[in-house]
Amino acid sequence: MKLKKVEIIKYRNFENIIINFEESKFPNVFTIASKNGGGKSTLLQFIFIRNTNK
Questions:
Q1: Which of 22, 36, 39, 46 has CA atoms 20 to 30 A from the CA of 12?
Q2: How many Å apart are CA 8 and CA 14, to the nearest integer?
Q3: Domain range enclosing 14
Q4: How would DSSP label each residue in the chain?
Q5: What pLDDT, on a 0 to 100 scale, did the predictor assign at position 24?
Q6: 32 with 40: CB under 8 angstroms?
Q7: Torsions phi, psi of 25, nearest 5?
Q8: 3, 21 in Cβ contact below 8 A?
Q9: Cα separations in angstroms, 44 against 4, 25, 33
Q10: Higher per-residue pLDDT: 4 or 43
Q11: Chain mean position to CA 5
Q12: Spatial contact of 49 and 12, defined as CB atoms under 8 Å apart
C-alpha cells in the first residue's frame, strides 16, 4: 500500500492539515524533516494509528 495523502482534522497539535505525497523521481522514498518539536514523530504516530485501525 502506498501512502498518497494524509488528512488530519484534529490530532494533538495538528489541526486541519492535508499532506500530499506526490509522485517524484523516487516514488518509494519521501523525507520528513523539521526542527525539534516540529511534529515529525506525531505525524508518524498518526499515520501508524490510522493504518492499524482499518
A1: 22
A2: 7
A3: 5-52
A4: ----EEEEEEETTEEEEEEE----SSTT------STTSSHHHHHHHHHHHHH--
A5: 66
A6: yes
A7: -60, -30
A8: yes
A9: 14, 23, 12
A10: 43
A11: 8
A12: no
Residues 27, 21: Cα–Cα separation, whole Å: 9
> What does the pLDDT look like over 24-40, one tens digit per residue?
676 677 788 899 999 99
- Distance in angstroms (rounded) separating the CA atoms of residues 51 and 6: 11
Number of structural domains in the chain: 1
The residue whose grid cell reads 489541526 is 15
pTM of the model: 0.73
Burial 3-37 (b: 16+ CB within 10 A, else e): eeeeebeeeeeeeeeeeeeeeeeeeeeeeeeeeee
Say how far residue 40 (Cα) sits from the centre of its chain.
Answer: 8
